[in-house]
Amino acid sequence: MLYVDHAAGGPVRAEVLEAMAPFLLGRFGNPSSVHTVGEDVSAALEDARRRIAGVLGMRAGDVVFTSGGTEANNLAIAGLALGARGRRPGHLITTAIEHASVLAVGRYLARMHDYDLDILPVDTRGRVRPDDVAAAVRDDTAVISIGYANNEIGTVQDVAAIAATAGGIPVHVDAVQAAGWMPLAGLGVDALSIAGHKIGAPQGIGALAVRGRLPLEPVLHGGGQERGRRSGTQNVAGAVALAVALELAEQERTDAATRATAAREEFTARVLATIPGARLTGDAVDRLPGLASFVFTGTSGEAVLLELERRGIITSSGSACAAGSTDPSHVLAAIGLTDDETRTAVRFSFDRTAPPAPAALADALAAAVAAIRSAA
Hints:
By secondary structure, the protein is α/β, with parallel strands linked by helices. It has two domains: about 15-250, Type I PLP-dependent aspartate aminotransferase-like (Major domain) (Aspartate Aminotransferase, domain 2, 3-Layer(aba) Sandwich), CATH 3.40.640; about 255-375, Alpha-Beta Complex (Aspartate Aminotransferase, domain 1), CATH 3.90.1150.10. Helix content is about 40%, strand content about 15%. It is globular.
């Protein structure tokens, strides 16, 4: 089996599993307990926090452990908006191609707290202009939330330029897909979300790094863990796993990006040359190194996926986060595709450590598309 759906998630790395295993077995204490067993795991938790902060270019106290990227995005947007504005309605800025967790929490704040939500358009490559973001800023803007790299089409935004023109408004970046592929430090942003299962840690662990000077209203209330910003007993094994996975991904990032870019470009060129009607979606240059996404006229994306799986290749038609949804992709609609075109989409996302053989993958895809078309 060839698995090329790493944007949805991948296996836990052996080094990560080894590092977290003691906290699933012998070192099982609650980090909030005031005894030696609790103090032992509390020290490990803080070490993980420090190591993650080092990769992100933040302070250790800025890092809040969460259950994943969705919770981190919710905490960033709702927490910063409500922390800054309290009960006063305010204004939010994001784009039309953001992850569902970003758009949903923005709509929640609009619906339940009377916030104004600006959802900025993108161009046909999926790019938003920094000047358009700056032009949308108002006196009551509470948060700007931008995805660093899109999970469906791979387009990478110039988040540093957006942060530089934000005029002091807190900028949150959803870096869940960018981690391990793009630089995470030195972006000039105020908050940044990551998720473990994209970089070799288990599902169910993530982090939000948010500048300590910014007031952050918790979205989970209880015992006041994470310095009062996220209540709930911490997942110490997951935090340790996230720290190890993030450090490894950062160490390998440049070489991994170089290998994956070469494989992606060869794969893309062969697909476009051998499959009539194939179109690349997203920016051809400013995109994730290991992600190639296409639409194929005269097919069904789901049918292509099934045909590929019959041939031993596992991939997806886009986001794995819209559970069971058959609605057209809001990302592909935002870049100008019709509903029919969006339903022909297929996404390939590569492993950082071992990209697939581009020619063999492209030939298998060509055969799958041809089989679907001939059966129509």
